[in-house]
């Protein structure tokens, strides 16, 4: 059997690995627009000159050769024929398949703000190529503006600060990393970034960008009337699934490629996984989707059930935070919001009727993995007679007597 | 594969497993010289205890379907196809701590000193005679056994 995988990030690579372990004789072709494998979660380490391109590779150096996988790098897919079962590449090759996995990820989005899309010094922070372009700008630029204070924006900011640029971060919400943090935990990070030289313009938004003779965006105007000077602009205002090449085909889409629980599209034998299916934007879920799609392409009938995606860990300047679920409940009064803190730690648990809905653990995140299990499985902890902050896996301890693996006693 | 099999009933919380683990991962250290007060002294196994549940050994299972490996964005966590053990490569790790979040049993933790790496059981793979914690347990509450996978 011949399986073609489009995309070589978390979902695509995870699928290729899974297939090679389960059925090593399967012929695999991986098509990727990049010429190197890299983890986008480590781009800040590349831009900050902590690691080179090799250092942000998340597979073995000779992954494709070792696994006997054909890798078409620097190649994009421009068209898909679902009847004759082939994809057409930008260099006009027709690559036939028995099964296809679409793992093309997502691309950054530049909001339609006057001047922003036209400016030649506006970059996303999504692929190695973006980081390389930013890297060369950093050689001369002094002032960097980051639009969007989500995780990607803060990753970019940390690297630009590392490179010695003056960094201003503009954010519409009133705090940074608004999806992952509450007010208190966000302030802790904001303070750290400020100590390292960053400036924040919160609860504000870009209204226009003035472009100079060289085509570069130089002055950024904000709704508040303020303006900021920029030599380089990083846009981190969200991403959109990338699936242009299926638009002429009969693959069903709705802002993303639509898939069933088995991660198969509406066309039999064609699967999709990762950011392109638009149901979660985080690495562990893309890996799991790639794995499940791969197993299903080999004829099994696994379902993608572990869908929980409201989860993240953050580590900036050595301050670590775990955040899960609904951490800013509204209205506050109808939830139990419990807080425990000391000078190094801030912990918050959001509950309702004994079910934990959200958790923030900032500071010491040792052994906190069990929280996700409790939240995603809606486990009632009201019967456990102890402070909720003292819960651990020990309260749910159970061992499989044959394998010795841990289970949950609930 | 080999796994450390736990008998919770036998554990009396002496923490010899912790000391053995710390010592095993500290160069030149032994039971008598190990400095338990050092910030570098980190155990990879844990005993949780409270009045209700008693002593609970929390040891890395080197799971058949390791969530830490699936969540790793740097390639630092890998399941060894030969031994079945989940190996951790500190030089690759980017300290994002997705693995800490994704281990359903709360086994993993950042290092206390720098928060740049993960503290993870390596099954004392460099030692000829197996995991140091097992050798140090006076109650045989933990034992290495061959399990199928």
Instruction: Give the biggest sheet of chain A.
Output: 5 strands, parallel
The tally of structural domains of chain B comes to 2
Helix/strand structural class of chain A: alpha/beta
Report the C-alpha radius of gyration of chain B, rounded: 15 Å
Task: Outline the structure in words.
Chain A: Residues 1-290 form the FAD/NAD(P)-binding domain. Chain A: This is NAD(P)/FAD-dependent oxidoreductase. Chain A: Residues 315-379 form the NADH-rubredoxin oxidoreductase C-terminal domain. The complex is a heterodimer of chains A (410) and B (149). Chain A is built from eight helices and 25 strands. By secondary structure, chain A is α/β, with parallel strands linked by helices. Chain A has three domains: 2-107 and 240-297, FAD/NAD(P)-binding domain, CATH 3.50.50; 122-237, FAD/NAD(P)-binding domain, CATH 3.50.50; 311-408, FAD/NAD-linked reductase, C-terminal dimerisation domain (Enolase-like, domain 1, 2-Layer Sandwich), CATH 3.30.390. In chain A, helix 1 (10-22) packs parallel to helix 7. The longest helix of chain A has 15 residues, at 283-297. Chain A is globular and about 60 Å long. With 149 residues, chain B is α+β, with helices and mostly antiparallel strands. Helices cover 16% and strands 20% of the residues of chain B. Chain B has a two-stranded antiparallel sheet with strand order 1-8. Classes of the chains: A alpha/beta (410), B alpha+beta (149). At the A-B interface, helix 1, helix 7, strand 19, strand 20 and helix 8 of A face strand 1, strand 2, helix 2, helix 3 and strand 6 of B.
Quick tags:
A: 410 residues, alpha/beta, FAD/NAD(P)-binding domain, Enolase-like, domain 1, 3 domains, 5-stranded parallel sheet, 8 helices, 27% strand, B: 149 residues, alpha+beta, Alpha-Beta Plaits, 2 domains, two-stranded antiparallel sheet, two-stranded antiparallel ribbon, 4 helices, 8 strands
């Amino acid at each position: 059997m011949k399986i073609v995988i489009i995309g070589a990030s978390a979902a695509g690579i995870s699928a290729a690995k899974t297939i090679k372990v389960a059925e090593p004789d399967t012929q695999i072709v991986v098509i990727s627009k990049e010429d190197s494998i890299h983890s986008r979660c480590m781009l800040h380490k590349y831009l900050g000159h902590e690691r080179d391109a090799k250092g942000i590779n998340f597979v073995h150096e000779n992954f494709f050769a070792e696994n006997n996988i054909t890798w078409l790098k620097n190649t994009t897919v421009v068209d898909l024929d679902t009847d004759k079962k082939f994809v057409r590449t930008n260099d006009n090759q027709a690559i036939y398949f028995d099964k296809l996995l679409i793992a093309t990820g997502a691309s950054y989005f530049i909001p339609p703000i006057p001047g922003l899309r036209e400016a030649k010094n506006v970059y996303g922070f999504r692929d190695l190529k973006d980081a390389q372009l930013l890297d060369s700008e950093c050689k001369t630029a002094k002032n960097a503006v980051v639009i969007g204070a989500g995780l990607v924006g803060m990753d970019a900011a940390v690297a630009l600060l590392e490179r010695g640029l003056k960094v201003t971060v503009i954010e519409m919400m009133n705090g940074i990393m608004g999806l992952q943090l509450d007010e208190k935990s966000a302030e802790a990070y904001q303070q750290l970034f400020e100590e390292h030289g960053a400036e924040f313009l919160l609860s504000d938004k870009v209204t226009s960008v003035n472009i100079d003779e060289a085509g570069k965006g130089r002055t950024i105007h904000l709704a508040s009337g303020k303006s900021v000077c920029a030599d380089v602009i990083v846009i981190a205002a969200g991403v959109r699934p990338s699936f242009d090449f299926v638009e002429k085909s009969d693959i069903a889409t709705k802002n993303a490629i639509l898939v069933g629980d088995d991660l198969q599209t509406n066309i039999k034998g064609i699967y999709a996984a990762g950011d392109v299916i638009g149901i979660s934007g985080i690495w562990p879920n893309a890996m799991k989707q790639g794995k499940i799609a791969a197993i299903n392409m080999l004829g099994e009938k696994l379902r993608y059930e572990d869908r929980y995606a409201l989860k993240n860990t953050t580590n900036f300047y050595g301050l670590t935070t775990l955040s899960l679920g609904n951490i800013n409940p509204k209205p506050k009064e109808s939830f139990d919001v419990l807080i425990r803190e000391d000078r190094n730690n801030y912990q918050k648990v959001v509950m309702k009727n004994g079910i934990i809905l959200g958790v923030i653990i900032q500071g010491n995140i040792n052994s906190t993995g069990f929280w996700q299990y409790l939240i995603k499985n809606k486990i009632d902890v009201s019967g456990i007679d102890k402070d909720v902050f003292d819960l651990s896996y020990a309260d749910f301890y159970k061992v499989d007597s044959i394998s010795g693996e841990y289970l949950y006693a609930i | 594969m080999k796994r450390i099999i736990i008998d919770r009933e036998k554990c009396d919380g002496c923490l010899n497993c912790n000391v053995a683990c710390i010592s095993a991962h500290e160069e030149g250290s032994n039971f008598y010289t190990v400095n338990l007060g050092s910030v570098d002294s980190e155990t990879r196994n844990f005993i949780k205890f409270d009045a209700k549940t008693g002593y609970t050994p929390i040891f890395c299972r080197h799971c058949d379907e390791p969530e830490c490996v699936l969540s790793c964005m740097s390639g630092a966590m890998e399941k060894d196809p030969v031994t079945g053990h989940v190996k951790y490569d500190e030089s690759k790790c980017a300290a994002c701590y997705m693995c800490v979040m994704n281990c359903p049993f709360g086994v993993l933790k950042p290092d206390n000193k720098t928060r740049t790496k993960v503290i993870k059981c390596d099954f004392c793979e460099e030692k000829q005679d197996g995991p140091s914690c097992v050798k140090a347990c006076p109650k045989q509450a933990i034992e290495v056994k061959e399990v199928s996978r």
